[in-house]
Amino acid sequence: MKPRTSKHQNQKHHNQVTRLVERGYTLLLDLVLLNEGFSNIKERLKEEAAARPTEHVDLLEKNSEGSQWIAFGDGCECRVVFPDAELKMDFDPQESDFLAIQSLAGDHFKSLFRKVTVYRPADRKTFRDQVKNLLTPKAATQLLELCTSASEPKVQWKARPIREDQE
Questions:
Q1: Each residue of 144-159: pLDDT tens digit?
Q2: pTM of the model
């Protein structure tokens, strides 16, 4: 049996939650301003780095391709990374570019590319409902575990209009 909580305890808990919500919202507003300033600084540094291509150096990571520009401050540094264009991983034989790709690769096509069969959910929006409707509960649970990856809960704030009775 659950112990009863007093009205005082409920009010105290409610006040703690209210303070957390209000403090979180204040911090969110501060972060919005800070992020805007930070974004402006990053854009200015990107422009500066782009204007100095002769100062770019190779990326140090073995698996990374591209270059970087490094600027130093007092006790800190900033690296503006210019990654090479991202390699596409899928090429559809039905796309118009595929014939050009195949033609340009010529005799080396089969050593540069491999054919892969990929399966994707037929309809992403209704997939979970279809699985639950078509399979037994146990099989549906197992299939959904295999076809999904965990996600973290998100916390969001938004401003509420002030009611007259709150003023």
A1: 999 988 877 677 777 7
A2: 0.57
